[in-house]
Every structure is written in C-alpha cells, then in structure tokens.
Amino acid sequence: MKTIQTSPISRVVDCPQDSNVTTILSLTNHSLVVFRSRKKHAGESKCGPDVQSVHQFSQEIDPALAEVKLVNGTLRVCLPKKNHAISGGGSSV
Fold first, then answer.
1. 92 inside domain
2. Which residues in 3-42 are b (16+ Cβ under 10 Å) and which e?
3. What is the pLDDT of residues 41-61, one digit of tens each?
4. What is the pTM (predicted TM-score) of this model?
5. Domain limits at 28?
6. Three-state DSSP state, 82
7. How many domains does the chain have?
8. What pLDDT shows up at residue 68?
9. Separation CA 47–CA 74 (nearest Å)
10. How far apart are CA 62 and CA 32, in angstroms?
11. Count of beta carbons in the 10 Å neighbourhood of residue 60
C-alpha cells in the first residue's frame, strides 16, 4: 500500500484586538467553524457565542493535527489533509 501525501489547507482568521472577546475554533473532518464570544456584564442575558465564519472542505482533514499560530493579530490555521492509503494494484498468490 502507498500513502498519498497532500499539501495542508491554510486559513487566516481575524482575531479582534479586544481582551473581552474570545475566538473559538471548532474543527470536524470537513469543516472549520469560527465563533466569537464576548464577556458578559452584570444584567446581560446569557447567550452563546456568535458564528463568525464557516469553512467547508471537499477533502477530509485531520483535526487532531491542526496547528494554530497567532501572527500579527491573526490566527494562522494549518489543517493537514488526511492521508489515504491506496492499493498498489499488484496481484496476490
């Protein structure tokens, strides 16, 4: 069997320069969802984070191997594609 090596998928996510805002990344095998959550102040109703963006991928990624780096106020997200083994096409006896 042979493993196909493919280049990773990269995305840049804007990250607010506000210490009251948290950026949350959610990864699946085919998507990256970016949420933003703001610290609640007394008297504000409780609500969940807001969806900022959704990125869908036609190729399967490996969320466990994702790398996220903060660079100049943005998050650089590198998502390795899953390696799929292929048969060599040989015959067995």
1. no
2. eeeeeebebebebeeeeeeebeeebeeeebbbebeeeeee
3. 667 777 788 999 999 999 899
4. 0.72
5. 2-39+49-86
6. coil
7. 1
8. 94
9. 25
10. 11
11. 13
